Amino acid sequence: MENDSSIQWEHSHNFGIDNKLHENKVKTVFWLTTVIMVLEIGAGTWSGSMALLADGWHMGTHSAAFLIAIFAYSYAKKHANNKDFSFGTGKVNSLGGFASAIALAIVALLMIVESVQRLLEPQSIHFNEAIVVAIIGLVVNVASVFILHDDHHGEHHHHHDHNMKAAYFHVLADTLTSLLAIVALLVGKYVGLIWMDPLMGIVGAIVILRWSYGLIKDSSNILLDKSVKKSTLEQISKALSKKNTVINDIHIWTIATAHQAAILKVTSAQPLNSDEYEGILKEILPQLSHISIEICRD
């Protein structure tokens, strides 16, 4: 038996994203977001502002998302050619995202319970201090948007970096919840509607729940190897039938955020070569990075 070190891949299984510039920018935003998260959670707890506390926890959900993205960049690059991973390390981000989404959904539910209790039993709020901290959080969020803005739009012209795209939309959501917290605190201070603060706490928790649900759904689809849509499979079958080829078996699933794999068995009286079949498949699914075809002559 040959030594394992002599085994070589016939093609690359590096389906992760190797972009040092993007990784560094996500790290910068992660540290900015984490510092403000700690500040807002501490200030929200001390001042009694549920809206500020909710915004702090919401920023915490995105700090976790940024940390997962950073880990995905690093782990995928480190193990890009590790033969222990049959289809590369593209699912690392999905696995971490699924786990963190479950935990964050629990946090959001606890926030709703706390907010409802404060609606029923209003507490005094140190408005001035809470408003200052909320404004600082808004400024940092806006700065983070600008840090990620150019790369997010530039990716459309180069390659699909879904980690960067996710980070960009997370900071946009943080900016929105910061604005909600400021509005709630200003209304509470100058109009006297104290209930607006816990109400915005509930709104912030709902935002976290919706984000968590979306992440759970998207990541579980990848982790469970959910197939592509039936309409896509029918489109492939129709395209191959024009080449007098019948599909006997087909499996297409996602192996990383922007990469798919396909395994199929086809039969034809005059079969094409594998490269021609791959070309037909990639015209329909450009994200196919790994294709295995068994060709049988009828």
From TrEMBL:
It comes from the Bacteria. One of its GO terms (molecular function) is zinc ion transmembrane transporter activity. It is a multi-pass membrane protein. Keywords: Ion transport, Membrane, Transmembrane, Transmembrane helix, Transport, Zinc, Zinc transport. One of its GO terms (biological process) is intracellular zinc ion homeostasis. SUPFAM superfamilies: Cation efflux protein transmembrane domain-like (SSF161111). Its main location: membrane. It is found in: Membrane. The chain crosses the membrane at residues 29-51, 57-75, 95-113, 125-148, 168-187, 193-213. Residues 28-224 form the Cation efflux protein transmembrane domain. InterPro entries: Cation_efflux, Cation_efflux_TM, Cation_efflux_TMD_sf, Msc2-like. Pfam families: Cation_efflux. The keyword Aminoacyl-tRNA synthetase does not apply. GO terms for cellular component: membrane. This is CDF family Co(II)/Ni(II) efflux transporter DmeF. It comes from Colwellia demingiae. The gene is dmeF.
